[in-house]
Amino acid sequence: MAPCRVPDFRSPLSTRAKILLATGVAGVLAVTGAAVVVSDGGDGGGGGDREAVAGPTSGTDAPVAAPPADESLIAPSPDESVVPPSPTGERDAADGGSGGDSGDAADGGGDAAGEGGTGGGGARPAGGGAPIRAGLFVNPGGQVSRWVADNPQDGRRPVIAEEIADEPQGVWFTRYDPDGVTGEVRAVTSAAEASGDVPVLVSYVLPSRDCGGHSGGGAPDTAAYGHWMERFAAGLGNGPVMVILEPDSLALNDCMTPDAKHARDAALAHAADTLHAANPRARVYFDAGHSQWHDPADMAARLRAAGARESADGIFTNVANFRTTADETAYAKDVLAALGGGLHAVIDTSRNGNGPVGEEWCDPGGRRLGERPTTDTGDPAIAAYLWVKPPGEADGCAAAPGTFSPEIAYHLALGD
């Protein structure tokens, strides 16, 4: 492939992102195909005619000052002594399904009030920001909530409403729509700020998404992705927010050439820096696959190559998969230890109550809801149990990816 022009990103970059972008060679070409349905990220239709909401995207502008915050929202980061060493044994190959020290104003680490953070430079210290400890936002505009409202006579409604719709879930943004995404993100974050809760946002627009699989699509190239991310970040507001940055982006990159991986790594590092520059209270998590996919040392190497040590606050595991919380906790700690300690992890527990069915990942039956979403896990290395994948939204076998299925939701709630 011919070398690509280095994107003219406007947000400040970390040292790692600058190096990656300066030496990056090939852009990542998007895989042709329809984008997945927006899950909890809006009306699922076009938003190109919406007026974008202005936000701090220029690297020459100072970040918007955040209001004073309740210090109880931030918990101490895990001490390295509680993170066990990486195991020496190899883990089995997986299905390939979709699956720190708290900083201060002096070192740029960021705190609940957003007084540290990027400091105009966008970089995060190794170890990232401390975990958020607060209630999580329940999105009233999510697909499950809309189904509950639209189907008052359905016999499955009471179970789905109580067990799923009333719980916090990830709000996914899957359409490449730089004109509309700022308003869509701000609609969620402003509602969360009003409720005093913390939203979980999932960006899923990276080029060559899902290696062209069930959920293929994304931005047309890395330059376009950088622009989209600036518009996404402009909607974050000033409140605390958790961002799950591009599921599958690192665990599922084996289909890519070395140059394409390098460009993707640069795009992820820049994305995290853009998010922190827009809102220093944001906590950004990088993809770590799940416990039966890659060896922890391998996964840590991928994370390190993408600048996770410099730009992330932690890692996420088990998104859209079914591995048990115990297995994911042990795996996450192994990855964190291989990275050098200091960061923390969040685990998707939306469908892991009954564990996996062998290596089956695409809408398997007989699964169950896992631990309820919370930032109070009782483990300093695990910042939260999250329902990143909204229960009831299909993987692509029972229905199109991201489509809400009341039948799937009902049986997840019952565990049968």
- Numbering strands along the chain, what is their spatial order in the largest sheet? 1-2-3-4-5-6-7
Helicity range of the residues?
A: 25-40%
**Annotation, overall tally of beta strands:** 7
Portion of residues in beta strands equals 5-15%
Rg over CA atoms:
19 Å
State the end-to-end CA separation.
49 Å
Which structural class do you get from the secondary structure elements?
alpha/beta
Average pLDDT for all residues? 77
Total helix count? 10
H/E element sequence: HHHEHEHEHEHHEHEEH
Note the main sheet.
7 strands, parallel
Stretches with pLDDT under 50, minimum 5 residues:
1-123
Global geometry: globular
Quick overview of this protein structure:
This protein has helices at 15-23, 143-150, 157-165, 181-195, 222-233, 258-278, 296-305, 308-311, 325-339, 406-414; strands at residues 171-173, 200-203, 241-245, 282-287, 314-317, 344-348, 382-386. The protein has 416 residues and is α/β, with parallel strands linked by helices.
